[in-house]
C-alpha cells in the first residue's frame, strides 16, 4: 500500500475533548518548566554572587560579574544615564550563548536521542543549575549554574517544539502560553519568596519542584500516540514502521491506516544531511523575520532599557528598570497565549514594527525627548506583545506549511532564529552602552 505525506495534515490526536485539553495543559506546563530555570537563574546568581563577594571581600577593589558591580553596590560614574560599569548585555550573552550552540548543532543529531531521554536530561540540567547556584562557594560555580540552565532550556525548547508534530497543532498554543508564563511566574515567585524573608539559597531549593513538575507533565499529563519514539530513537522507529508496512503488503491487508499523518512522516526513513540543508533553506523565510524581531527586542531590553531613566519620576532607577522588565514579560505572556484567537501569517510585519520600536527608543535615549516613564511603559508592553506574537505564529505556520516528513526537523532547526537574534543583539548592545555612558 502506498503512503503519501499530506502537507497540511494535522497530526494524530485523541478525538475526545478531554484528551485534547490534557495535552494542551501538558504542553503549557512543559513550556513553563522549560523556561523557568532560565528566567530565575540570573536573579538568583546575582544575589548569591553579591553575598559571596560581601563575605569574602578582603580588598576595597570592585569585582564585576555578569555585568554588575557586586562590591560597591552602586556604580560610580558621571554619566547622565546613571550607567552600570558594564552593559547588562554581558548578562544576556552568558545566558544565551550555550543555548545558541545547542540549537545550531543539536537538530542534526538529536533524532538519535529518544524524547524520554531528552526530557530526563533537561530535568537533570535544570535541577543541577538550581543546586549549583544555591550551594556555590565561588563565582565560577554560579556561572556554571547559569550555563547548565541555558543548556537545559535550549535543548528543551527544540525538543518540545519537535514533539508537537506528534500531537494536534493546537498544543503549540499551550506551549507558547506556558513559555510566556514562565517569565512572569519565575520573576514573581522568586521576588515573593525572597521578599518574604527566605534566603536565595532556600528559595532555589524550593524551586527544585519545577524540574519534578516537568517530569509529571511529560510522563503523566501527556497522552502521546503509539508512534512517538519515547524510549527508542527515530531511526529505530522508521525501521519498525517500514517493517510493518512490508508485513501488511505480504499479508494483503487493507486495514485502515492508524495515525496516518505520523506514519506517513516516518515511512521513508530519516532525512539525509542534504535534505536537512534543503529544509533549512526553506525555513529562512520564517527564521529571518523571527531573528529580526528578537534582535530588535533584546537590543531594546539589554542595550537601551537601562538608559531609559527619568530622574524626576517617583520610582527609583532600579524600580523603573524592574517595571520595564515586568511589563515586557506581561506582553509576552498575553501574545504567546493569543494563538487560539488570532493568527498572523505575515510575521515580517511584526519584525518591521519591532525595528521601529528599537529606532524610536534609540533616538529617545540619545535626545531625551520622551516626557515620562509612563510612555516608555506602554512602548515596552507593546514590544512584548510583538515579540510573543512573532514567536507563536512563526512556529504555527512552520508546522502548518511544512511537509510531514520534514516537520519534526524543521521545528527544531527553526528554534535557532530567536537565539541568534538575541545573541547578535547582545553584541550590538556593548558599543551602544559604551557610547552613551561615556557622554
UniProtKB/TrEMBL annotation:
<dbReference type="Pfam" id="PF02487">
    <property type="entry name" value="CLN3"/>
</dbReference>
<feature type="region of interest" description="Disordered">
    <location>
        <begin position="242"/>
        <end position="266"/>
    </location>
</feature>
<dbReference type="InterPro" id="IPR018460">
    <property type="entry name" value="Battenin_disease_Cln3_subgr"/>
</dbReference>
<keyword id="KW-1133">Transmembrane helix</keyword>
<keyword id="KW-0458">Lysosome</keyword>
<protein>
    <recommendedName>
        <fullName>Battenin</fullName>
    </recommendedName>
</protein>
<feature type="transmembrane region" description="Helical">
    <location>
        <begin position="409"/>
        <end position="432"/>
    </location>
</feature>
<keyword id="KW-0812">Transmembrane</keyword>
<keyword id="KW-0813">Transport</keyword>
<dbReference type="GO" id="GO:0051453">
    <property type="term" value="P:regulation of intracellular pH"/>
</dbReference>
<feature type="transmembrane region" description="Helical">
    <location>
        <begin position="119"/>
        <end position="152"/>
    </location>
</feature>
<feature type="transmembrane region" description="Helical">
    <location>
        <begin position="375"/>
        <end position="397"/>
    </location>
</feature>
<dbReference type="GO" id="GO:0012505">
    <property type="term" value="C:endomembrane system"/>
</dbReference>
<dbReference type="InterPro" id="IPR036259">
    <property type="entry name" value="MFS_trans_sf"/>
</dbReference>
<dbReference type="GO" id="GO:0007040">
    <property type="term" value="P:lysosome organization"/>
</dbReference>
<feature type="transmembrane region" description="Helical">
    <location>
        <begin position="347"/>
        <end position="369"/>
    </location>
</feature>
<dbReference type="InterPro" id="IPR003492">
    <property type="entry name" value="Battenin_disease_Cln3"/>
</dbReference>
<comment type="similarity">
    <text>Belongs to the battenin family.</text>
</comment>
<feature type="transmembrane region" description="Helical">
    <location>
        <begin position="202"/>
        <end position="221"/>
    </location>
</feature>
<dbReference type="GO" id="GO:0005765">
    <property type="term" value="C:lysosomal membrane"/>
</dbReference>
<feature type="transmembrane region" description="Helical">
    <location>
        <begin position="172"/>
        <end position="190"/>
    </location>
</feature>
<keyword id="KW-0472">Membrane</keyword>
<feature type="transmembrane region" description="Helical">
    <location>
        <begin position="25"/>
        <end position="45"/>
    </location>
</feature>
Amino acid at each position: 500500500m502506498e503512503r503519501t505525506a499530506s502537507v497540511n495534515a494535522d497530526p494524530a490526536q485523541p478525538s475526545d475533548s478531554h484528551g485534547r485539553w490534557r495535552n494542551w495543559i501538558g504542553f503549557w506546563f512543559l513550556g513553563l518548566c522549560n523556561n523557568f530555570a532560565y528566567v530565575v537563574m540570573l536573579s538568583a546568581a546575582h544575589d548569591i554572587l553579591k553575598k559571596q563577594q560581601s563575605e569574602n571581600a578582603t580588598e576595597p577593589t570592585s569585582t564585576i560579574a555578569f555585568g554588575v558591580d557586586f562590591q560597591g553596590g552602586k556604580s560610580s560614574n558621571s554619566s547622565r544615564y546613571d550607567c552600570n560599569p558594564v552593559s547588562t548585555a554581558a548578562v544576556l550573552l552568558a545566558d544565551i550563548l550555550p543555548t545558541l550552540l545547542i540549537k545550531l548543532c543539536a537538530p542534526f543529531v538529536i533524532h538519535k536521542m529518544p524524547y524520554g531521554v531528552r526530557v530526563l536530561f533537561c530535568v537533570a540540567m535544570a535541577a543541577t543549575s538550581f543546586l549549583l547556584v544555591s550551594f556555590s562557594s565561588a563565582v565560577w560555580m554560579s556561572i556554571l549554574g547559569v550555563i547548565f540552565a541555558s543548556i537545559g532550556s535550549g535543548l528543551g525548547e527544540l525538543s518540545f517544539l519537535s514533539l508537537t508534530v506528534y500531537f494536534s497543532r493546537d498544543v503549540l498554543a499551550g506551549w507558547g502560553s506556558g513559555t510566556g508564563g514562565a517569565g512572569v511566574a519565575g520573576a514573581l515567585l522568586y521576588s515573593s519568596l525572597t521578599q518574604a524573608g527566605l534566603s536565595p539559597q532556600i528559595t532555589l531549593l524550593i524551586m527544585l519542584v519545577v524540574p519534578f513538575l516537568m517530569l509529571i507533565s511529560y510522563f503523566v499529563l501527556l497522552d502521546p500516540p503509539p508512534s512517538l519514539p519515547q524510549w527508542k530513537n527515530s531511526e529505530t522507529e522508521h525501521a519498525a514502521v517500514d517493517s510493518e508496512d512490508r508485513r501488511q503488503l505480504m499479508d494483503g491487508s487493507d486495514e485502515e491506516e492508524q495515525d496516518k499523518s505520523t506514519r506517513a512522516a516516518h515511512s521513508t526513513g530519516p532525512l539525509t544531511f542534504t535534505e536537512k540543508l534543503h529544509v533549512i533553506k526553506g525555513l529562512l523565510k520564517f527564521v529571518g523575520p523571527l531573528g529580526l524581531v528578537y534582535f530588535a527586542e533584546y537590543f531594546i531590553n539589554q542595550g537601551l532599557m537601562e538608559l531609559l531613566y527619568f530622574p524626576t519620576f517617583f520610582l527609583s532607577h532600579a524600580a523603573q528598570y524592574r517595571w520595564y522588565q515586568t511589563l515586557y514579560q506581561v506582553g509576552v505572556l498575553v501574545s504567546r497565549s493569543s494563538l487560539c484567537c488570532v493568527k498572523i501569517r505575515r510575521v515580517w510585519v511584526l519584525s518591521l514594527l519591532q525595528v521601529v520600536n528599537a529606532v524610536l527608543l534609540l533616538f529617545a535615549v540619545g535626545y531625551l525627548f520622551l516626557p515620562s516613564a509612563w510612555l516608555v511603559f506602554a512602548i515596552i508592553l507593546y514590544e512584548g506583545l510583538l515579540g510573543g506574537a512573532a514567536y507563536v505564529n512563526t512556529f504555527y505556520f512552520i508546522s502548518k506549511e511544512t511537509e510531514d516528513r520534514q516537520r519534526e526537523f524543521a521545528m527544531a532547526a527553526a528554534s535557532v532564529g530567536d537565539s541568534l537574534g538575541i545573541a547578535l543583539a547582545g553584541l550590538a548592545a556593548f558599543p551602544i552602552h559604551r557610547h552613551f555612558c561615556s557622554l
